[in-house]
User: Which sequence fits this backbone?
């Protein structure tokens, strides 16, 4: 079964096999909330813009969405460091396909710009449009529960290292078998032994490779399986689309 990595109802799941981030070491990380419930992650790429996944567009009006910045803890989002910002508009990619997962990317324009400080910073877009090489070790960041079979949502932001897998292998019969096809608009990353992965609740969060934003958490089959790595929207394929909106 293909699953999106968002948090419907109480089925919130987090970075599998991860550990707590160093306090405030991910100042670009955003929690996208509806009625104070975390539904997706996101990345602050400009003071007034957050990048996330298109499948996080759950049908709610933008007026119901709040972006929380400046905190590692979902329970302490009223800390002095936290900023709660209303959303002016949401802009999912017009060609997002919920069956093939193509173009799983969305921008949120904030009602007012975030105040940048040591707790809130932007993560720039990649400078070059190169693909991420097979074997590159990347980091996924997200919130949620610590194990698949535990329903309680974790309080803390977590991270885990995953390795880029080439698309040919990812599309092979042992992996996704082209159902759906992992295209050049996507990145495939996981762990050969399993147990390290993004999962439900991490949708829209960043995949960081060599200190650059390279992916957005998109989808997978279950979580943490060695032959079903996580799939990420490849940011470098959408630089022109992003810049055409936020410039």
Assistant:
């Amino acid at each position: 079964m293909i699953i999106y990595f968002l948090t419907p109802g109480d089925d919130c799941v987090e970075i599998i096999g991860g550990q707590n981030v160093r306090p405030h070491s991910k100042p670009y990380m955003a929690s996208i909330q509806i009625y104070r419930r975390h539904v997706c992650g996101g990345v602050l790429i400009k003071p007034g813009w957050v990048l996330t996944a298109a499948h996080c567009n759950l049908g709610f009006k933008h007026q119901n969405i709040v972006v929380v910045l400046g905190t590692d803890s979902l329970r302490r989002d009223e800390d002095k460091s936290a900023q709660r910002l209303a959303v002016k508009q949401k802009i999912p990619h017009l060609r997002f396909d919920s069956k093939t997962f193509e173009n799983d990317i969305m921008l949120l324009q904030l009602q007012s710009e975030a105040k940048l400080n040591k707790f809130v910073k932007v993560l720039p877009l990649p400078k070059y449009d190169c693909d991420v090489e097979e074997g590159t070790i990347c980091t996924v960041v997200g919130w949620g529960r610590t194990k698949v079979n535990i329903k309680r949502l974790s309080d803390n932001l977590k991270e885990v290292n995953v390795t880029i897998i080439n698309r040919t292998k990812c599309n092979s019969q042992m992996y996704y078998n082209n159902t759906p096809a992992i295209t050049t608009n996507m990145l495939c990353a996981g762990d050969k032994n399993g147990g390290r992965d993004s999962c439900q609740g991490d949708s829209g969060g960043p995949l960081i490779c060599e200190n650059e934003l390279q992916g957005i958490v998109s989808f997978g089959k279950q979580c943490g399986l060695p032959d079903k790595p996580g799939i990420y929207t490849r940011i470098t394929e959408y630089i022109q689309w992003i810049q055409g909106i936020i410039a």
